[in-house]
Amino acid sequence: MRILLTLAWRNLWRNKRRTLITVSSVLFAYVLATALLSFAKGFQQQMTETLIRQETGYLQIQDALYFDEPSLDHTLAYEEEVKEALAALDDEISYVVPRISGFSLAAKEMSTRPAMVTGILPEQENKIRNLSGNMVSGEMFGADDDYAVIASGLADMLELGIGDTLILIGQGYQALTATGMFKVGGIIEFQLPEQNNTAVFLPLKKAQWYFAADNRLTNLIIMPADTDRIDYLAGALRNRLDDEWYTAKTWRELMPDMVGLMEMQDTVYTGITWIFYVIVGFGIFGTILTMLYERMQEFGILLSIGMKRFQLGLIAFIETILICLLGIAGGILAALPIVYFFQIFPVEFTGEMADYILRFGMEPVFPFLIDKQIFFNQAYTVFGITLLIGLYTMRKIYAVNILEAAQN
Questions:
Q1: How far is CA 7 from CA 19, 301, 311, in A?
Q2: Do 138 and 12 share a structural domain?
Q3: pLDDT of residue 360
Q4: Which of 128, 272, 311, 320 has its CA 20 to 30 A from that of 214?
Q5: What is the enclosing helix (H) or strand (E) of 288?
């Protein structure tokens, strides 16, 4: 076997130009596919992280009926059973974010606008989405304050400023009428227009009073200490809670449309990379086929002096595999610094594209993602394609006619 490896290696460099062209095609496809998937995964990760922090968190405890019928009548009773379950899994939990939210009408004098009223604990909320960092005037309330913080778009539509009175009218827990008057103590700005035109924030206790839902929450967001253990944490919480009253849902269960979009993106990017590989595969195949026909006389002579077809086919097969391994090794060495560079200095969009991205509450900056699985998967794919070509090479050599080949 050692002799066969030596012969295959020497054969590669008998025609350096052909070998380098073939290796370069493998390298180029590997680098292009790896860079594309690293960008796609980086974009996907940032989009997911943004939505998780703005909307659902990684995990939520809800009332058993809330997901199917999200209303204040299906709010979560934040009682000892829930607190004990959280305490038992304290090592797995980084922090929790309680919220209660519901639709209301926001009014000033004769002007009214629909509003999403959310009761929060500001210290906990800032950990997940840094609301205080988006304040444009006034200040964020404390847990014991009684004033409101409203979005800048809603403030403009109702012509509300700091110190003005905001009137809220809606429906509370178990169809009770919810009414309240709150001074505006802060104005906050969001990039997402829908959120910026409807958001009203109240201290959690004040919001529970407004909705007549003392000690109740629409959702209790849980941020895990290790995001890789979300499914374990969700299962552990379900085992500790009465499933007749409570449920624990991961972000994937809370945002099925988002998961579907991600899967569609994965399919598209995988399809694009396979186009690269098909092109490169035909390139390698053409090069190897040319090499076979150029060396047909050599094969005929070797077979006529007693070399076994299996040995000759194995040498050609090894040559193909060596070309593949050289291309993959070069691809890894070339792709790693490129991906690392764009992780440190991410792609930044400007102009209309930046404005479009900002509307979704995301920064128009997309870092590449360094993931060893991306590098491994591309290597496996290239190796698999080359393996098929190598097997074809062996089959071709087995079919060589010694007399015809020796005369060429």
A1: 15, 16, 11
A2: no
A3: 62
A4: 128
A5: helix 256-294
Token pair for residue 380?
Answer: 């496996």
| Residue 26 covered by a domain | yes
pLDDT of residue 393: 80
Looking up tokens 């009203």 gives 200
Residues 115 and 213 in one domain: yes
For residues 124 and 97, the answer to whether their CB atoms sit within 8 Å is: yes
In this prediction, residue 293 carries a pLDDT of 76
Structural domain containing residue 135? 65-242
Can you say how many angstroms the Cα of residue 69 is from the centroid of all Cα atoms in its chain?
28
For residues 220 and 130, what is the distance between their CA atoms, to the nearest angstrom? 17
**Helix 309-344 with 2-12: angle, nearest 10 deg:** 60
Q: What is the pLDDT of residue 406?
A: 57
CA-based diameter of the chain, in Å? 104
Inform me whether the pLDDT recorded for 407 exceeds 80.
Answer: no
Per-residue pLDDT of 88-127, as tens digits, reads 998 999 999 999 999 999 998 888 899 999 999 999 988 8
For residues 275 and 380, membership in a common domain is answered with: yes
Neighbour-count burial for 59-93, b at 16+ CB within 10 Å, e otherwise: bbbbbeebeeebebebbbebeeebeebbeebeebb
Looking at the domain assignment, is residue 252 inside a domain? no
Residue 57 in any domain: the answer is no
Calpha distance 266→163 (Å, rounded) = 49
Encoded tokens for 325: 């391994």
Q: Of 242, 276, 299, which one is at a domain's C-terminal end? A: 242
